[in-house]
Amino acid sequence: MKSDLKGKEMADEERSNFAFPSKFEIGVEQLETMVEEAEDHLAYPSTTNWIDEMNGMEDEEWAMVQRKGNQFVVNDQPFYVNGFNTYWLMVFAADQSTRGKVTDVFKQAASVGLTICRTWAFNDGQWRALQKSPAVYDEEVFKALDFVISEAKKYKIRLILSLTNNWDAYGGKPQYVKWGKEAGLNLTSDDDFFAHPTLKSYYKAHVKTVLNRVNTLTNITYKDDPTVFAWELMNEPRCTSDPSGDKLQEWIQEMAVFVKSVDPKHLVEIGLEGFYGPSTLNRVQYNPNTYAQQVGTDFIRNHQALGVDFASVHIYADSWISQSISDVHLQFTESWIKAHIDDAEKYLGMPVVFAEFGVSTKDPGYNVSFRDTLINTVYKTLLNSTKKGGSGGGSLLWQLFPDGTDYMDDGYAIVLSKSPSTSNIIALHSTRLALFNSKCAWKCKWGCRKKSPLEFLYNDDL
User: Fold this and answer.
1) pLDDT tens-digit map of 230-254
2) Catalytic residue selected from 151, 232, 236, 345
3) 29 an active-site residue?
4) What is the pTM of this model?
5) Which backbone phi and psi does 5 adopt, to 5 degrees?
6) Is residue 36 annotated as part of the catalytic site, yes or no?
């Protein structure tokens, strides 16, 4: 964005207690019992072995995530996701004294059923840089990214890997422009990143290097690894120097096709915040403010680019509308999600992931109850799409931190061990999605788009 919890003691007991009935004999009473048992488990220390079973993610089935129409699929079964952001994993893994925190965050995320993590596959010209200068890499930092990927797989978590930043944190667009100036290019704006041939060649070289990297721990090339959920072109691209959106659109079209030419197997997304632009003036009413349509992005047009597989949207009412907490934030969040799900279904024919959302503890009026209500609002609005087999593909909290990393907190960090009510909400949502995904795998007599005994999952109040 801007600029431990549970042990393994009950794993075996859970496997025996949470046994699944025959896939072809399942009925209403059995479903209700399963959900009750699943929700009971949330109150106890556990791993997500039972969620793994429901999601059908045994090792031999660790397959590439694909897109089928407006849904994600794994082994041709729907895959709705609950996930999180922890952007600094590679940098922490590069130092032996902090590497354990990477394992901690995956372990804790898995304990509440989270299946996707979004993190940075870049650090341009900064402290502990991955890319020290154009096409010059630090092998030790690359080995740290190898570790992040191999460790995620151990906890059945897939990764969205972002390839650079619009902002100056971890280098990003400003660092590429700085490199260009050092090479003697006549550059006048950070937005030259999107148009200058040399800077575009720097970016493409980075893409090629990362995607073709052979993991030193698993011996699997990144572009062949099912642990990678998707490649993200850039975190929150904006091109304020061209409000028409043409400059950024051309860059997206060029780079999405380029990524696909290097790696046709994985999904690709842009990394956008979701603002509506000049091509859809009938939708700008949903933007959080008038400035949002002047930053060079254009949600529907951008996502119609060839090579883009799913849409990305961020949700920050406390940054975009007002910092002070209010119910207006909740109303905006719900309408923002619904508008983008509608567009993904009607105009794009693809899933949409709400790839960052949260609220800062630094906001005036903040309290845990409001954060829980906001998270619930996101989850419940998405579930209304999920239960219809719709385009609401999932959401990723910003952001999940393990214990002992408070000094990195930007105000949005959630430490599960210190946030029991929030942990329960996350785990319950994971349970519901896992049950929905497994429902489709059971080959029941009702279709995914018809009412089923699982309807009650989505209508109760938390």
Assistant:
1) 999 999 999 999 999 999 999 999 9
2) 236
3) no
4) 0.88
5) -60, -45
6) no
